[in-house]
Amino acid sequence: MNMYYSLLVSRLAKQIREKRITRGHTQAQLAELAGLTRQKVIAVEKGVLSVSMVAYARVLGALDCELDVVPAAMPTLEQLGELF
Predict the structure, then answer these.
(1) Taking the CA atoms of the chain, what radius of gyration do you get in angstroms?
(2) Is the per-residue pLDDT at 1 higher than 60?
(3) Long-range own/partner contacts, residues 76-81 (CB < 8 A, 24 or more apart)
(4) What is the end-to-end Cα distance of the chain in Å, rounded?
(5) DSSP for residue 36
(6) Is the Cβ–Cβ distance between 49 and 9 less than 8 Å?
């Protein structure tokens, strides 16, 4: 079970990083917009499991995004490899 939610957090972190880059923000700029430290934004983008949902919500809000709950897709071989 641990592996499964690790993958979900990893996917979310990747999407957040891609959205930040697409919007043209640095990590420091996103941190300021979200009211977080740059270190916290780095942790969000790395998918650190101890980061609170509040931090994810603040980052998503700063990016004018929201979380959408959809059925999980099967992991790719690459994603599985990243977990080990």
Answers:
(1) 13
(2) no
(3) 79/7, 79/10, 79/11
(4) 14
(5) S
(6) yes
Distance CA 64, CA 16 (A): 11
DSSP H helices in 1-84: 2-23, 27-34, 38-46, 53-62, 77-83
7 Cβ neighbours under 8 A, 6+ residues apart: 75, 79, 83
Per residue in 37-77, pLDDT (tens digit) is 999 999 999 999 999 999 999 999 999 999 988 877 777 77
pTM metric for this prediction: 0.82
Distance CA 63, CA 53 (A): 15
pLDDT of residue 69: 85
